[in-house]
């Protein structure tokens, strides 16, 4: 084992800067009341000595850990296979990094993991939580409420119980779905099917409602439930071709579902878009532009959703510690845009 040099102390920084220990502490911990020339001298001494604040001591002063839990209510096999999660995590990470906060990733494989996550959040390890991909019967909202930490959710809440004070960031899923189906209607398609997402998630329910807003009298057989995965898209597309072989368009709940549906249509000898037009949702690259043919889809800004979730949470934390003046964070619903490519 190699010996390491002793870490520079607060006292060493104070001696180098020619100020008191209390002045260094206020500068390092972001306090007020220090004249700018002294602030510059302290910062120069910190840089020169390579001083790193003791996080435990800093937390006593600031009441902050500078760590945020990101809870994804999905198993790791789904999280690391679906580019949606990578995009949202990238947006969150960029915002947290810009504010010198650490990201603590927590995934849930089953009910035992929910209890573990609840205990961790209640244990005082993090300042707040960002939670997304919740399912309607998920126990996480109750566990988070019990933990009593500030939280921002990704997606419109759909669980039962008191939702006062719940802050969330979502996409206009229903409006985006309407735009997708109206586009297919505008192409002259009349037998428009919908492969839903997992209907225990509000995004899938909202997209189904958007489809129904346009296809008011649609044949019930034209709606088949998927699960937001390529395999789910394949299974649903095979079922649709058996139930409604005369269908001439498909609105898929996301791009991965659409990619699975396109494979089945190609295998069945259906030409896209000549025989069957296909529209997805998300505009996840490289998925949407590497399907055959490239996918017409509804774009939502997934990375921006992550950024906004983190921004709202940090803003709320600043209000709690008196570091920022302003109103309470409010919910945000981002708009969508139809992106036309070759599939419809």
Give an overview in words.
- The chain is α/β, with parallel strands linked by helices and 344 residues long.
- 45% of the residues lie in helices and 16% in strands.
- It contains 14 helices and 12 strands.
- The chain has helices at 10-17, 21-28, 36-49, 55-62, 76-79, 83-98, 111-122, 140-147, 173-186, 202-214, 230-243, 255-267, 287-290, 302-320, and strands spanning 67-72, 102-107, 128-132, 151-154, 167-171, 192-196, 223-225, 249-252, 277-282, 296-299, 332-334, 337-339.
- The strands form 2 sheets. It has a 6-stranded parallel sheet with strand order 2-1-3-4-5-11, with helices on both faces. The chain has a 6-stranded mixed sheet with strand order 7-6-8-9-10-12, with helices on both faces.
- α8 links the parallel β3 and β4.
- α1 (10-17) packs across α3 and α7 packs parallel to α8.
- The mean pLDDT is 88.
């Amino acid at each position: 084992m190699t010996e390491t040099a002793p870490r520079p102390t607060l006292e060493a920084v104070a001696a180098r800067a020619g100020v008191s220990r209390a002045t260094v502490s206020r500068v390092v911990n972001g306090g007020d009341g220090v004249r700018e020339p002294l602030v510059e001298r302290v910062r120069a001494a910190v840089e020169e000595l390579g001083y790193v604040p003791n996080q435990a001591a800093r937390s006593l002063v600031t009441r902050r850990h500078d760590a945020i839990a990101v809870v994804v209510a999905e198993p790791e096999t789904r999280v690391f296979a679906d580019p949606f999660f990578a995009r949202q995590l990238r947006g969150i990470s960029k915002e947290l990094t810009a504010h010198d906060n650490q990201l603590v990733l927590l995934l849930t494989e089953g009910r035992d993991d929910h209890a573990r996550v609840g205990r961790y959040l209640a244990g005082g390890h993090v300042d707040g939580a960002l939670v997304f991909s919740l399912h309607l019967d998920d126990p996480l909202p109750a566990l988070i409420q019990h933990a009593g930490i500030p939280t921002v959710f990704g997606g419109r809440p759909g669980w039962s119980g008191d939702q006062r004070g719940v802050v969330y960031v979502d996409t206009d899923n229903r409006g985006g779905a309407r735009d997708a189906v109206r586009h297919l209607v505008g192409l002259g398609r009349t037998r428009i099917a919908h492969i839903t997402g997992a209907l225990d998630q509000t995004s899938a329910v909202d997209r189904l409602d958007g489809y129904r807003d346009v296809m008011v009298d649609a044949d019930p057989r034209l709606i088949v439930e998927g699960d937001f995965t390529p395999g789910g898209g394949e299974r649903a597309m095979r079922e649709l071709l058996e139930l409604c072989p005369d269908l001439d368009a498909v609105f898929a709940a996301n791009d991965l579902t659409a990619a699975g549906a396109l494979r089945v249509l190609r295998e069945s000898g259906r030409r896209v878009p000549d025989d069957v037009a296909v529209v997805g949702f998300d505009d996840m690259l490289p998925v949407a532009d590497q399907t055959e043919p490239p996918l017409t889809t509804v774009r939502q800004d997934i990375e921006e959703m992550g950024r906004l979730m983190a921004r709202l949470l940090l803003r709320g934390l600043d209000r709690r510690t008196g570091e920022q003046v302003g109103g309470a964070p409010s919910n945000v619903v981002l708009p969508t845009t139809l992106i036309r490519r070759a599939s419809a």
